[in-house]
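Entry type: protein chain
Record version: 2
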Amino acid sequence: MGDSVSKQLFLPLAIVVGAMFAYAPFMIMGAPYESTMGLVQKIFYFHAPVGIAMFMSAFVCGIASARFLFGGSPRQDRLAHAAAELTVLFGAIVLVTGPLWARKAWGVWWQWDVRLTSSLMGWMVAWAYLLVRKYGGPGSDKLAAGLALFGMANVPFVYISVNYWRTIHPATSVVPTLPVDMGLALWFAVVCFLLLFVLLLRLRVYLEEQRTRLDGLYLSLDE
């Protein structure tokens, strides 16, 4: 029942996501320029929402991994695997857009401050999860699940790090103080990327389910 409903909702969701992404540049273009950074600040409307999508995928990977470790559900394992791949994807976008913005706004491509370093570490943990799953041999699924739990625990640290350590990033308290036009553009972009995450996650899980069924058919032919 759940799968059939999910399949029915997939196409409408894809249409909504496509329409929102088509409209997003107009909202971002209409948002006012930041007084000191000017046009380059508009990277913020891509960088921050993709970062939130990365954190969401890391959480989904960690929660699904925990349920797999303690419940042994293959479905949760497939969900965790799909979410890890999306963590790598969104993390790559974060690590590209961030330095592009930083170079123009702060005059540096990269600094080893707490948020940048912990974000990079979270991305590398997701990569480690995928590498362990592919090359780790027997038991690698559970070992990778342990890595996913570490990656999930890193997310709150990345978020609050700017509030407690010296960093070139503004504190998290800046977002609620944004002017209305900036805030609307930001949260619209956040919704866009979160819906894209849901869409891609569903696609990737479906692909993994079909691969599992195909493997089962091959095994039945060998018997």
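Comment: The CA atoms of residues 69 and 210 lie 22 Å apart.
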